[in-house]
Amino acid sequence: MTPGARVQAAIELLGDVDRDTAPADRTVAAFFRARRYVGGGDRRAVADRVYAALRRRAALDWWIERAGPPPADPARARIVAGLALLDGWPAARIAGAFDGGRHAPPPLDPAETVLAATLAGQTLDHPAQPERIRLELPAWLEPALRAAFADRFAAELAALMVEAPLDLRVNTLKATRDEAVAALAADGIAAAPTPLSPLGLRVRGRPPLATVAAFRDGLVEVQDEGSQLVALLVDARAGMRVCDFCAGAGGKTLALAAAMRNKGHVVACDVLRGRVERSSVRLRRAGVHNVERRGLTSERDPWIKRHAGGFDRVLVDVPCTGIGAWRRNPDARWRFGAHDLAELIETQRRILESACRLVRPGGRLVYATCSLLPAENADQVAWFLDRAPQFAVRPIGEVWAAAVGGECPAEGPFLSLTPARHGTDGFFAAVLERRPALAGAGRMTGIAIRRATPADARAVARVHVETWRAAYAGILPDRVMLQMTVDDKAASWRRSIGSQGARDAVLAAVAAWEGVVGFASCGPAAAGPAGFAGEVYTLYVLPDWQEQGVGRALLGACFAALRAAGLGSALIWVLADNPSRFFYEAMGGTRVGERDETLWGVVLHEAAYGWPDLAALPPAK
User: Is 370 a catalytic residue?
Assistant: First the structure.
């Protein structure tokens, strides 16, 4: 390509990046896929010119504004400014590249001519520039990042302006780090171990990896050292069930599978189904075969509820502003505003609220971002823990010692990496462990017990069907289990809720983010041993909430409703051999009767637990 053709290609590509909503690297890849005739050297020259303009966009725009009336085409103006300020071209050389020849850009218009003449001979940085212009920082982010970094503000922002190195992760399913270094060296590529990740290699320059045997054969994968560390901190082990909840293209999924030695089960989820599906090429190349790919309809996909409590580890690398990755994605600086941040924070919370349900008691939830904003990091963890008391922070130093080894670079309970201090992309990670049993059961945060309304009928029915099927599985025939549907029970509960009177009640346990997670109904005793005036007809709690005091709170609310109705004693019938009997015994109930009931042709042996005096419930055990 001629110099003019390269300039024209850069103008077109920069314009595409500005118009496209996709990250710049994807736009660049698509641009050159459509122009396969462009040689490797020309591609690098065009891409380098565009990325240089993206990295210093604020400074270029500052000069363009000072030079006079703004040119009509922003992409042309930025390339002209870049040729003068970044490449040091004199005005005559710039005008010569814009000669209107074949494949060259049309001649400069008057405003562009003034721009080239004004900027030629100048340096990009100028004493009159505000600090945020020199640091390429959007104005709306300045207060938050100044507060976050304090006296490190300038150094941290300056480090985000530098092009990131090329980091590789060694695929331990196929090679050791030394073997990978040797394989790369055979293709003339020098690689050195990364300082923090025991699996990382840092490569000089930007070799064409697609032609490198070590890459084609799956010995290495492209992954920033910070991202490698986040995956290591999941501490995924052979035989575990692990969920990568926001898997994207699968970089961390591959690392998790390798850590597990292909033993166990990894589920890679994402709402961008296409990205998850495209990861199949990477999985095959890496020799990974314990990964299930699953596209989700949303962060509240029904699949999540069906697999509640089923995973030892859940990694939640949430969508974020991506500030920590500005070295790689300089265009991202200008793609977000304050309104977008507010929306992202809400999205992150919805994802956390939903994904946490997948974690088994004693398992771990790892929350991660590539942001440097406390609002997306520690503040989100604090918000979550306030609403999910069944989780607690596992100090990052302890996790690091077990999963990574060596000295942990974190100074507090969380991992916080930055380019200036650690040479990685900016990453945040918090390890949250679900308690095996909730301390202080019965004291609930973010859950309210109230009378059900007709609008709750379907949610109550959902809880009823899910828990009833679990209780009667293996007892009643499958055909019977399938006959109980949410639609049928919703109609029934709508009638029951609508007909509540002064002496009976349907009560719902409502979680702030989940909705109805349990319910109970009570009223005058229908049948049973003499001496019990009231009865708790039903009490069901979703499995994921049974350790959080919801059952105890519902039972206490039933007792209060019965007392208010003048009913001073109560009983409840349960399957005699069902584990729920231990709960009612712990709540002070005594076994007061037994009976046989026939349900769909099956004889069920039931036991009654009673409370002769509806005083306050005993302390939780």
Answer: yes
